[in-house]
Design brief:
The chain has about 450 residues and is α/β, with parallel strands linked by helices. The protein has helices at about 15-25, 75-80, 95-110, 200-215, 250-265, 270-275, 280-285, 290-305, 310-325, 380-385, 425-430, 435-450; strands at about 1-10, 30-35, 115-120, 125-130, 135-140, 145-150, 175, 195-200, 220-225, 325-340, 345-350, 355-360, 365, 415-420. Strands 1, 2, 3, 4, 5, 6 and 14 form a seven-stranded mixed beta sheet that branches. It has a seven-stranded mixed beta sheet with strand order 7-13-8-9-10-11-12. The protein binds flavin-adenine dinucleotide.
């Protein structure tokens, strides 16, 4: 069976739902939209699927409305659901997932003059270009659908363990948690078990707090390349210091020097980071490819911990565990994983040294997260790249798109339009992984589709 739609949205996380909501608001009743995703909780994706209340948003509620033109929408939703939270508070991610679902449901309830939207629960397995002005997708359920406009909202995959899987003893497989977002692994951990977490970003903090909530009281060793952990938001956010991107130097080292000097002039360095936020995309676009590559090589971990901060009380809870010695940090590169007396040994090269050190634990949890958005995690994107329907970003930041988020692929022949939304467009925008940026992009892409008819 093959159906042709005006728009196909591929994906079922936040980006896909944000694009769909904007399309519903803007398209005429005669238009048809298909949303194709394999995720059981449409709209939740990895981020908002968690059931644990302690897994909180890292952006204040006042900046998390799905619709940029209705900035108080999420705060109003929280109020109407009895949550005593203000715009500056950090709501739970599970509530945010419900809010996204409700927002979509509210728009779908409006039957009058609304376009048709079909939700298809399937994976898009392959894509071909049709001469009849469409791009067609083979779906995992055997169907094929074609679209005159397509929006790729595929997010990024989980990073795999940075060791050769063939070198990992088979007996260890059940002790390695490759995808910690399936929280069922927590039930297998005994209270006194030793846990080694690989990666020290936001996912690590989530997992440490989830372990505690499940009654775990054992030691937690955290191994990452630099041993840096995210910083916290200030309980009272400072007023952002406005930053004029045009006045900044063009080299990375010059920019860092200027920003450091600016942070010495304010009481709280967060004022500089928050002032930079609205200007980050423009700053990224000014950087040459060489400077972008230098940023990814040298500054990324520092950027991440200052930029992607955790809610103040979440930070305090985590900090207590560090101070009482429950959580210990190690800086180095994982070299190998071995088995030993029912447990595992993670051998790593200590940062800036030749020495090899070892961590002994009962469990290894992969929290290396999503630093980059390559295409290797996605069979669909790999195939599209082979057919030259997309071109990977040279720095591994998704795929090449223009300033309107339209995919750049000069050898395509069909007039069907192909867009991407979310982390896949990091090469063009860099700052495009969180809701405040994705929602603006989702609205702009919907407007672009509607404006060309
Ligand atoms: C743990 C975590 C916490 C976060 N917290 C925040 C926060 O507090 N605030 C914030 O602003 N941002 C946060 N983020 C950033 C978050 O990534 C974005 O807010 C947003 O959820 C990204 O959504 P997405 O749809 O682009 O990607 P995803 O949520 O990854 O969704 C991609 C979807 O595409 C589907 N898919 C992939 N391939 C195919 C295919 N071939 N066919 C069909 N479907 C496919 C997947 O199944 C998935 O459902 C967080 C991220 C994580 C991982």
């Amino acid at each position: 069976m093959r159906l042709t739609y005006d728009v196909i949205v591929v994906g079922s996380g936040f980006s896909a739902i944000a694009v769909t909501c904007n399309l519903i608001e803007q398209l005429p009743a005669s238009a048809t939209v298909a949303v194709v995703g394999d995720d059981p909780g449409f709209g939740r994706g990895t981020a908002y699927r968690t059931e644990l209340y302690l897994h909180r948003l890292n952006v204040p509620a006042g900046r998390m409305s799905l619709l940029p033109h209705q900035p108080d929408d999420f705060v109003d939703w929280l109020k109407s659901h009895g949550r005593q939270l203000q715009a500056s508070d950090f709501a739970s991610r599970s509530d945010y997932g419900l809010y996204v679902r409700d927002t979509l449901a509210r728009l779908l309830r409006k039957r009058d003059g609304r376009c048709r939207v079909d939700f298809i629960k399937a994976k898009a397995a392959g894509c071909v270009e049709r001469y009849s002005s469409t791009l067609a997708f083979h779906l995992g359920n055997g169907d094929e659908i074609a679209g005159r406009n397509v929006v790729l909202c595929l997010g990024v995959g989980n990073a795999t363990l940075p060791v050769d899987p063939d070198g990992v003893p088979a007996s260890l497989r059940s002790r390695i948690i490759e995808n910690p977002w399936r929280l069922s692994w927590l039930r297998r951990v005994a209270p006194s078990d030793a846990v080694c977490i690989l990666g020290s970003g936001l996912t690590m903090i989530d997992q440490v707090l989830a372990l505690r909530a499940h009654g775990h009281s054992g030691r937690i060793d955290v191994l990452s390349r630099r041993g840096l952990a995210p910083l916290g938001h200030a309980p009272k956010p400072p007023v952002p210091l406005p930053i004029d991107v045009r006045a900044l130097p063009e080299t990375l080292s010059g920019i860092l020097k200027t920003l450091r000097a600016k942070s010495r002039t304010v009481a709280d360095w967060r004022a500089v980071m928050d002032g930079l936020r609205p200007a980050t995309q423009a700053l990224w676009q000014r950087l040459s490819s060489r400077e972008r590559a230098r940023f990814l090589r040298h500054a990324l971990p520092w950027w991440n911990i200052h930029r992607h901060r955790v809610a103040p009380d979440v930070f305090d809870r985590f900090e207590e565990l560090v101070l009482d010695g429950t959580v210990r940090f190690h800086a180095g590169f994982l070299k190998s994983l071995g088995a030993e007396e029912g447990g595992l040994v993670a051998a790593y090269r200590v940062r800036a040294a030749r020495e090899i050190a070892e961590i002994r634990a009962d469990w290894l949890v992969n929290c290396t997260g999503m630093e980059r958005a390559g295409i290797s995690h996605s069979p669909l994107l790999k195939e599209m790249s082979r057919f030259e329907l997309i071109i990977p970003d040279p720095l591994g930041l998704g795929i090449q798109v223009n300033a309107a988020s339209e995919v750049i692929a000069p050898s395509r022949i069909s007039p069907a339009r192909l867009f991407a939304v979310g982390a896949l467009t990091a090469g063009q925008f860099w700052e495009i992984t969180a809701v405040p940026d994705i929602r603006v992009q989702a609205k702009a892409v919907a407007e672009e589709i509607v404006s060309r008819g």
